[in-house]
Structure formats: C-alpha cells, structure tokens
Task: structure prediction
Amino acid sequence: MGKKVIVVDDSKFLVKQIVEFFEAEMGYEVVATGNDGNEAVELYEKHKPDLITLDITMPNKDGQQAMEEIITKYPAANVVMISAVRGDTMLECMSFGAKGYVEKPLKFKDAEFVSDFKSTIEEVFEE
Result:
C-alpha cells in the first residue's frame, strides 16, 4: 500500500497537479486536499497521513502557521512546503521541522523538475 498524503494549496489548479503527481509518479494515495491552513490542521488530525504538503501563502491561516501547529502536536509529522516564497520564511519552516521544500512554479512537464520533486519526497521517508 502506498503512503497516504494530504495536499493543501489555495490554488485548486495546483492541488490537482500535485495530486496527479503523487498518484501517478509516486504511487501514493491522496486521502484529502485542502485550501487553507485551518483545513490543513483539521485534515492532518483526521487522517494522520504519512505526508502533508503545504503552500505558505494561503488565506485564514498560512502554511507556516499550520506547519508549526501540526509539528507541535505531532512531532513526527512529515511536512513538505511547496511555495514560491523563498529566503527567511523557508529557512524558518525548515528549522521548525519541515522535512523538505519544493519551489514554485511547479514544472511537471520538465523531467528534471519531476525527478528532483521525487527525490525530495523520497528523502523525507529515508530519515
């Protein structure tokens, strides 16, 4: 059985692309999707997935706040940030406990990007 994943991003288009990537390329099961940080926390608590991906810039509660809340309650949580935000915010996410980072724009037509994305996800589970 593949790993269970939750995808959270305020772009429904990107959620669809990321879900397709996890299911087609990784063989994982996407058990839920959400559009803001509040949903991210609720969905994590409900499903306890093997992995959750979070955008940083989202309405209501941003991905960084959601990630901190999830990791505080569930220190073993595997969180990967998928965002166009760079610099200090990303470093803060990684130092707080995010296991990886994938930079937007997501280039699913680019074989090198897909390979790097797969490697980033696989490294999360090697720790």
About this structure: Residues 4-126 form a domain with the Rossmann fold fold (CATH 3.40.50.2300). The chain has five helices and five strands. The helical segments are 12-26, 37-47, 63-73, 88-96, 111-126. The beta strands are 4-8, 29-34, 51-54, 79-83, 100-103.
